[in-house]
Amino acid sequence: MRKYKGTSKLMLQPRSAEEVSQILKYCNSRCLAVVPQGGNTGLVGGSVPAFDEVIVNTSHMNKIISFDKVSGILVCEAGCILETLIAFLDNQGFVMPLDLGAKGSCQIGGNVSTNAGGLRLLRYGSLHGSVLGLEVVLANGTVLDMLGTLRKDNTGYDLKHLFIGSEGSLGIVTKVSILTPPKLSSVNVCFLACSDYASCLKLLLDAKRKLGEILSAFEFLDHDAMDLVLKHLEGVRNPFPSSMHNFYVLIETTGSSESYDREKLDAFLLHSMENGLISDGVVAQDITQASSCWHIREGIPEALMKEGGVYKYDLSIPVETMYDLVEEMRVRLDASAKVVAYGHLGDGNLHLNISTPQYDDNILSQIEPFVYEWTSKHKGSISAEHGLGLMKANKIHYSKSPETVQLMASIKKLLDPNGILNPYKVLPPSLFSKAEIYTE
């Protein structure tokens, strides 16, 4: 994003949990701040040193430890690149329950630490459901072995959930045990055009009812997002070359019976056309066409970067009112910036992007805190899947009550009393005394 730049003088690349343990034990005894770093693909500055913290990079911890073909349980080290795991599982006849645009660089430890959402959360749920166990190194060097491979284990507090989504502020994830579903043979992708947002919502409701158990993704993008992709990404073609539309929806189905799934999809599309919910549509005829459809959706962040400066907001908002924020922001900013919207409509996750030729403090003051206030007022979350990092640590009160934030701070102080792990991230620094935050 080119928004955050640290001045760290040291990056360490441990090869085992034991080496991570030695590093943290040493740093903790001398109150040296540490920032864990995986693929460095986050969008909120969570993996960037705020000042001169020691970087602990997990990229050399990249072994697949075991895979059980009966249960589908994968155990691997935190530095495994997501795309490598996806390819490995594909060869075994399984799929990763997590898929996102940054898969070629991001690492599973970072995915777990940020509770990454991705493109198929609608089908497979969040990592809180898929991750069965973790190995984590605490600030004092203690290695916490919670690397269970059981679906059911009801013995006391399920502590692994503390570390899923804590962005390295409570401990460094070194190993992951994750439940992977079997790969199904029948995949269909269709790219549809809608005239208005209300049609997108009706289409979503119908898709959940009529496609049911085979629905695996429901993504949307607006006219401005499509415009940017066509302008900046090489090789991308407009699926509907004769005209531009106000909204686009990408639907994916995954099932085990090709004829049954296609029959369900065709009936759904025919019904949607007859009811005027779809203005136009294409169904991918092969894997190349399916990849082209996905490339449009996954390529939006890259197109935004090529356009200039971009202010990104990752929000969970009730789907009925989600696009109201986009329209209000367009009125608010008028012609001074381009407002682009896309996201995971199936699970109520809006990616709101304000694109400008370059970063401008005047425009930022028009966006913030308005976007957070609006989201809070509509009972939404200011971070749906990207985490809080450096960008939103001081904004957590828009989504969490003071009592909840205070309890989070108490947990942080218990597990990391010297405040060495990823300081200035996730929680407001004002909750901790200066003696608890070190930047030596």
From TrEMBL:
SUPFAM superfamilies reported for this sequence: FAD-binding/transporter-associated domain-like (SSF56176), FAD-linked oxidases, C-terminal domain (SSF55103)
Keywords: FAD, Flavoprotein, Oxidoreductase
The protein's enzyme class: oxidoreductase
Gene Ontology MF annotations: (R)-2-hydroxyglutarate dehydrogenase activity; FAD binding
GO cellular component terms given for this protein: mitochondrion
Domain of life assignment: Eukaryota
The protein's Enzyme Commission number: 1.1.99.39
Domain FAD-binding PCMH-type positions: 4-183
Cofactor or coenzyme needed: FAD
Record carries keyword Oxidoreductase: yes
PANTHER family per record: D-2-HYDROXYGLUTARATE DEHYDROGENASE, MITOCHONDRIAL (PTHR43716:SF1)
Protein family membership: Belongs to the FAD-binding oxidoreductase/transferase type 4 family.
This protein's name: D-2-hydroxyglutarate dehydrogenase
Organism whose genome encodes this protein: Nicotiana sylvestris (Wood tobacco)
Organism phylogeny: Eukaryota, Viridiplantae, Streptophyta, Embryophyta, Tracheophyta
Gene that encodes it: LOC104240537
